[in-house]
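idk why but the lab printer keeps eating my pages so im just putting this in chat instead. protein + protoporphyrin IX containing FE:
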Amino acid sequence: MTLDQINSLPLDQLNPADPQHFMDGTELAVFDRLRREDPVHRSHSPVPGMDSYWSVTRYEDIMHVDTNPAIYSSEPAITLMDFPKGDEQQLKMFIAMDPPKHDEQRKAVAPIVAPTNLVNWQDLIRERTGKVLDSLPRNETFDWVDKVSIELTTYMLATLFDFPLEDRRLLPYWSDVATSLKATNPNALEPQERMAELKKMLGYFTRLWNERVNAPPRTDLISMLAHGPATRNMGPMEFMGNLILLIVGGNDTTRNSMTSGVLALSQNPEEMAKLRANPALIDSMVPEIIRWQTPLAYMRRTALVDTELGGKQIKKGEKLAMWYISGNRDEAAIPEPYRFIIDRARPRQHLSFGFGIHRCVGNRLAELQLKILWEEILKRFPKIEVVDEPTRVFSSFVRGFSRLDVRLPS
Ligand code: HEM
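predcted complex ->
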């Protein structure tokens, strides 16, 4: 759909969750129109299982929904798709739970990425980042997504799980399988094949769990889940759900921020010049990259009661998408939201990590990985040339890139 079509379509025909907008790079135009003309908007999706849903597009309304879990539930799911009865519905993960169970399970894993623990990760992250950057080809075109973003986030996940390094590429593979649904992505696996692959993941992790449950507690995520009072008795589908949460949570999001930083700086050479002149700006640039990209475009909530939002009557049981990507471009909350500015006065005033009880557990870890990446890039490469348009991911949930061709001139 062209920009003209987006702006002239009758409002009730706008379907912001159509992944094609994200593929075409027109999604921001859809949200601009909704924020202006119908900030709490009802759409009907032709995708079976998605049906009708509300889009919450203004910063303040998103904050309201995200911080009122007694009105807006995270159950049964945090994406707009409702699954038919069966295996998929059994998948339980704490991002899609309400208190008190959510709070108990979150407590079991949160310590691994607590600020005090992050200090322990720093040297390892720096060493691995340096190795990956040193192995990149010079003066020839290569895919930054594959060689840098996927490689680094995969190393990090393998470290958090204490997962065998030689098998680490299974992690992004499983993440892709988990996030690609046939109903919204024609290239995805058939539902039975998808579940079969996820069960292989469960089998692999169950072996690691069994090794660790009988050993003294350690500081990797599997050991923490196996020994945590709120998680040690999880059934297989709940274990699988939480694995998917941790793999997806730590994977696509940081990966796409690693790619989008390169893109944003290439499109804004004056910001790159500022950064080279003052590398200390990395600290404020990292949250700006995360705002600018918004790697998870939305989170879903479901109304627990009849309520009112932005003048609209929301009925109990109706679905809402909190479009973080739209809130992050809302000029009522963020000055000059369309500009990529690496020295913003309040760079952390964005919605990309959500707010309230589900606010991203891994936010500081993600920021640390990006900070170290940019420190190591500046030490090594005088220039990163983007040689082609990026290829975008076909999804309205994960907002990111599957390919970005670059060249490092020596
Ligand atoms: C730039 C990188 C990242 C972004 C943009 C991001 C974004 C988000 C968002 C939007 C939420 C839901 C917030 C809400 O519903 O209010 C979330 C939750 C979560 N994230 Fe992240 N995330 C990132 C990195 C990570 C990393 C590195 C990890 C772990 C290793 C992680 C683990 C989680 C977990 C476990 C939750 C569920 C929290 C809960 O339900 O209490 N994330 N993240």
